[in-house]
Inverse folding.
């Protein structure tokens, strides 16, 4: 019985792991991160929300991921309602993140759907939108609702 040798696989060495980094291009659209997500704030907690809320949120994030950050920020759709957060008009003064003044250039919010499912609050770093709060009951701007 003859022994067959298995050929060695050649792997390109771009880093120590041999795995090449994938760089996002602006034309690939927005990515969303929950790195700074805060569900512990009782005002912005979504732990009791129905499944329709989560499905609607995922649909909105999927749809927005086809846009660039610039396209989202200049979009004036009445259903999207994307705009900077003016802390002086809200019930909060900041997100309360460590080193927030270095991390957050401009805080933003956008609608999940009309007025039914509230808003998403966070900030951009390049083409990544960091979600900090989900606000299903419009509690950041309480005087408006």
């Amino acid at each position: 019985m003859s022994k067959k040798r298995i050929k060695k696989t050649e792997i390109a060495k771009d880093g120590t792991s041999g795995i090449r980094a994938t760089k996002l291009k602006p034309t690939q659209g927005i990515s969303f991160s929950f790195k700074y997500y805060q569900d512990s704030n009782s005002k912005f907690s979504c732990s009791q929300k129905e499944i329709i809320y989560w499905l609607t949120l995922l649909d909105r994030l999927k749809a927005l991921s086809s846009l660039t950050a610039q396209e989202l920020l200049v979009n004036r759709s009445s259903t999207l309602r994307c705009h900077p957060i003016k802390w002086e008009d809200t019930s909060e003064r900041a997100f309360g993140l460590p080193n927030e003044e270095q991390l957050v250039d401009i805080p933003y919010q956008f609608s999940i759907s009309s007025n039914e499912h509230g808003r998403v609050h966070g900030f951009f770093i390049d083409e990544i939108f960091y979600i900090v709060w989900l606000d299903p009951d419009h509690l950041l701007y309480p005087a408006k609702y």
User: Anything to note?
Assistant: The first helix runs from residue 51 to 64. Helices lie at 51-64, 69-74, 100-103. DSSP finds three helices and five strands in the chain.
